[in-house]
Amino acid sequence: MRDFFVAYSILTGFVIFAQLSSNELLQNLLKPTLMLWLIAGYIYYSWKKLEKFDYLILFALFFSLLGDVFLMPLFDHFIAGLLGFLTAHILYISAFYSEIRGKWKMNTSKIILLILGTTIYAALLGIIYYTLIPKNESPVLLAAIGIYSTALLGLFISTLFRNPQSKLSMQLIMLGGALFLLSDSFLAINRFVYPLPFSPVWVMTTYTAAQALIMRGSLIRNA
Asked: What number of helices (H) and strands (E) belong to the chain?
């Protein structure tokens, strides 16, 4: 599986290069390959024992693919992209919620992550609204951001309460959820608050790492 993720990392590098160089053709061609690669890999490594959990993850990756496509220069439709990722987050939450068994195992590190993640994201959402509301932005956009942010935070929280058989699976998916939170924070700051220098580097590295960690953690959850 090492070669699989090496190839995925190389693809990510090409996408970042295309974004930094503002090469719209390369972006349109390469960006969809990221989630297609993870979907193909997930099916390849688990097709003999696909369960309901696996189908939820696969559909989450598919809707992430749709989100990526709608955010490409070819379409550049922010709300449609947001809806794609919103659906993906709901599917991820459904999958992770199914693995909350018995008593919740909340240790000190998880509690710190929960408080830190919730506080940072609430503050960021407040900054975004503080920036957008005086500009008389569309109520649809403001509502979409609020709903999406709630789902994203829900995704992060659901990774903290999982209780899979594999401790490594728990750690990988928990880190993936945290990186998803970080990636969308970079994206939101860059789009609504302040242009980040080399923003594709920060957004894409955290986003692709988050998806890969969730994919890998999902594959080994029963190990």
From this structure: 8, 0
CA nearest 132: which of 111, 121, 146? 146
Type of residue at 203: V
Q: How far apart are CA 93 and CA 83, in angstroms?
A: 15
List of residues 6+ apart from 176 with CB closer than 8 A: 159, 209, 210, 211, 212, 213, 214, 217
Predicted confidence (pLDDT) per residue in 118-135, tens digit: 888 888 888 888 888 887
Q: Indicate the domain borders of the chain.
A: 2-219
Nearest to 185 by CA among 120, 136, 135: 120
**Distance set, CA 10 to CA 71, 127, 199, 206 (Å):** 21, 34, 18, 15
pLDDT, position 110: 77
